[in-house]
Write a structure and sequence with these properties.
With about 575 residues, the chain is mainly beta. A hairpin with a 4-residue loop joins strand 27 and strand 28. It is globular and about 85 Å long.
């Protein structure tokens, strides 16, 4: 088997099966096997629990901030130091996950043999209890003879994953093959819990990320290139003013041996895919949440991490040295940007706040935006600068607020709300200023893309199909073309007049089932989002998808068979 960046592979030989015609093993041997399986399960469960507490995306819907409840990788809501996220609250402690094996519940007594249909005829009932909050059902034990043979064990983030080699493949060698695999295509886009993650480079390529990969997609040729230097989930992305260099920040994680990986920012060349600078190793906690290049030739980079205090720091891009650092807020920070007119001015926004920062030397000072007579929203989701220098913010109340600069005490500039514009039903997730000065806004609940004049008079609107989800981000393509990322992990392309069509689609939660067609260049996937998807490998496109009532795995033999978590089967 091959060896990839996410884990190592080893090959295991077959063991005796109790239903293969051999005499049953002795009671002591059965106990030893059972203890080994229980220890492996407990180890995997503990690793999964620590991984989720350290910063994984739990399944669930979108909250008012536009993120799934509990935050994403490296989210402060998933930190062990947060009193609201104890083991009992996350429902991921060992007591809640029901880690008993079948009816024995971690006992060492003799296994209960049965002829049930859930795990196969004659298979010991040794599955986990009902899964909670994304826990998958693991079924350990001896399988029926059709699946007897070698198995492959892969270690992902320190967790052992056993995969059985399909029958009918002939002899399987234990040594690694001489060939090396090269990544050709990545399906999907991370829009469910990320912001400002879709940009157009000077080359015309789209740049976005999913998992540990940053994808550069060339349209209309539909060719991909990939930046692969990150060791864990990429969480944010910023493009340099030259539209050539890119900065990407990753979450904390663990390597294949379970050792911790620290968050870091990579600055790299999109033409050569070479890393130019690595910033902040050992300086960030949990993950990198937001990034922004300065507008004075992009000499500096502002970074906000996912620690409890959401540390804000400014770095010299060429030297990789820290220029200033300050605790920003204990609330979630969703986005940060330099003022395009003044690189000493920085703005950040998030839960219940918008801050106007002044950077001088090694110090950062802030002034809080005052809402005055206007209702203070729960979240400031996004903001842009208009041509006149005003700041437009989109919030969870569905409003666009216009903050205008005015002289304050001591001649220092301050921002006040000059106008409130009702834009969307539900949150405003995205704002984009076009080349002609018009403004685009994207809605969460209503799934609409609206076009506004510079004075915020409504010009045009279009609604996205429900199957694609809400608007996550908007980018301007060539001419009148727009690119839209959605919360259901799709990238759409089109215009306000003609509508939008998908160019990239993917699952919205973890994928745990995959089956290839025996003859055609097609494959099936399914996962925790309860979607069964058929993919055309030659066109790199989704052929069709079907909603399932439960999560499951797959096997393709003559027809499509789906083995589901609760033990049911469908064709």
């Amino acid at each position: 088997m091959g060896r990839g960046p996410g884990g190592s592979l080893s090959v295991q030989g077959p063991g005796p099966l109790p239903n293969s015609g051999d005499p049953p093993p002795g009671a002591l041997e059965l106990r030893l096997r059972r203890v080994e399986q229980e220890l492996a399960l407990v180890k995997a469960a503990l690793g999964e629990t620590l991984r989720r507490l350290g910063g994984c995306d739990p399944p669930g819907g979108l909250g008012e901030s536009g993120d799934p409840p509990g935050g994403g990788c490296g989210s402060p809501k998933m930190g062990m130091g947060d009193p609201k996220m104890g083991l009992g609250d996350t429902k991921m402690g060992l007591g809640d996950t029901k880690m008993g094996l079948g009816e024995q519940k971690m006992g060492l007594g003799p296994p209960k043999w049965g002829w049930g249909t859930q795990n196969g005829a004659g298979t010991p009932k040794m599955g986990l209890g009902p899964p909670k909050r994304g826990w998958r059902t693991l079924k350990w034990g001896w399988d029926h003879p059709e699946r007897e043979g070698v198995s492959v064990k892969m270690f992902l983030r320190g967790r052992p994953i056993t995969m059985y080699v399909p029958s009918g493949l002939g002899p399987v060698r234990a040594e690694l093959p001489p060939e090396r695999l090269q990544l050709d295509w990545v399906y999907g886009y991370r829009g469910r819990d990320s912001r400002s993650n879709l940009h157009v480079l000077g080359s015309g390529e789209l740049v976005y990320f999913i998992a540990c990969v940053v994808v550069l997609l060339q349209l209309p040729a539909r060719r991909q290139r990939h930046y692969l230097r990150h060791s864990d989930c990429v969480r944010c992305l910023a493009v340099h003013p030259d539209r050539l260099r890119v900065a990407t920040g990753q979450a904390a994680g663990v390597d294949k041996d379970g050792k911790p990986l620290q968050p870091i920012v990579h600055i790299w060349d999109s033409a050569t895919l070479q890393t130019l600078q690595q910033i902040g190793l050992g300086s960030f906690e949990r993950g990198v949440g937001s990034l922004a290049f300065s507008t004075d030739q992009g000499a500096f980079l502002c970074v906000v991490d996912d620690s409890n205090e959401h540390m804000m720091s400014v770095w010299d891009c060429a030297r990789g040295t820290k220029q200033a650092e300050v605790k920003s807020t204990n609330e979630s920070v969703l986005t940060v940007e330099f003022n395009p007119r003044d690189s000493s001015s920085i703005i950040s926004s998030g839960k219940s706040h918008v801050y106007f920062w002044t950077w001088s030397g090694n110090g950062l000072t802030k002034k809080q935006g005052i809402f005055g007579k206007y209702k203070k929203p729960k979240f400031i989701q996004c903001f842009i600068f208009d041509a006149a220098g005003a700041v437009l913010t989109g919030d969870s109340e569905g409003n666009i607020l216009t903050w205008t600069p005015s002289p304050g005490k001591g001649g220092k500039e301050m921002y006040q709300i000059g106008q409130q514009t009702r834009a969307h039903e539900g949150s405003v997730f995205a704002l984009c200023r076009r080349r002609d000065g018009t403004v685009l806004s994207g809605g969460g609940k209503d799934r609409r893309v609206l076009s506004w004049s510079p004075e915020l008079q409504l010009l045009h609107e279009v609604e996205l199909p429900e199957s694609f989800g809400a608007v996550r981000t908007i980018a301007e393509g060539p001419g009148e073309e727009l690119l839209v990322g959605t919360t259901r992990n799709a990238l759409l392309r089109g215009t306000l007049g003609s509508g939008f069509t998908p160019i990239v689609q993917g699952h919205t939660d973890e994928v745990w089932g995959l089956a290839t067609h025996p003859k055609l260049c097609r494959f099936l996937t399914c996962g925790h989002d309860r979607q069964l998807c058929l993919w055309d490998g030659s066109e790199h496109a989704l052929a069709w998808s079907l909603g399932l009532e439960v999560r499951g795995g797959l096997n393709w033999g003559g027809g499509v068979w789906g083995g589901r978590e609760i033990g049911l089967w469908g064709v």
